[in-house]
Amino acid sequence: MPTLTLTEVKITPLDAPLGAVVTGLDASQAVAPEIILQLKQALRDRHILIFKNQRLTDEQFLNFAFYFGSLFVPPEDIPVLASETGVTPVIIPVSNVDGGYTGTGELAFHSDHHWTPYPSSGSLLYALEVPSQGGETSWLNLNLAYETLDESTKQRIADLQLITYNPFLRDRNAPRSDYRLDKSIPLISPVFPHPLVRTHPESGKKILYLDYATEVEVVGLEPQAGAELIAQLRQHLNQPRFYYQHKWAIGDIVYWDNQATLHHRQPFDPNERRVLKRISLAGSRPF
Questions:
Q1: Vertex 246, ends 240 and 248: CA angle to 5°?
Q2: Model confidence pTM above 0.85
Q3: pLDDT tens digits, residue range 223-258?
């Protein structure tokens, strides 16, 4: 099969805090090594890549994803999205029909698999059907969020460790806590503290490694002090200057760096279909 050359493929940065659009690339075909290298460098610098007008079988989607890494496989005792049957699918249907996952409601800014020992390095999400309105996904630049903190806050959080509790092990009907204030509640799964300020493994940039709404705890801080600090940091995260909102089109693939971004989904009409497929790639221990 033919390979694509650099003259055909263009990587155009968005006029946004992160993101670049890739055109002239057919992800169903073999891709030249120099293009893969450029794509990896662009992801490192821009955090998300948007591939337009793709048409792939599941096998082709997997083959394309494997250019960027191996599959994320969670530990058996640590559930993630779609792992309730005991085996997490290789390609996860992010869909409101046909047994898919995530429903139709709003999903707050989060990074995938943050509560696992080795969170995924990134994910590729491929759009097959999209609603007429709603369902947009936003990505937030966590390096920019860190860099715009005041110096005293940077010094305060420099060496702190954060526990992110597994949202798939909580009672969905119980009130959701943003911070674990009651230390007397027994843990129902292992926890894996990660740096609150993470160093990106490729760029070396500092990342404010914090979800917007998942239950967390700062190691070594009293509950009230920890809760106040996290509330302050989350208020800082909640600024449009940090994020890009993507309006999906059929055939879009968005590949995002899960180590440097959060993502958020707008709600959409449950009477409309939204069908996407996700592949997540393996990551390393945060440092």
A1: 160
A2: yes
A3: 999 999 999 999 999 999 999 999 999 999 999 999
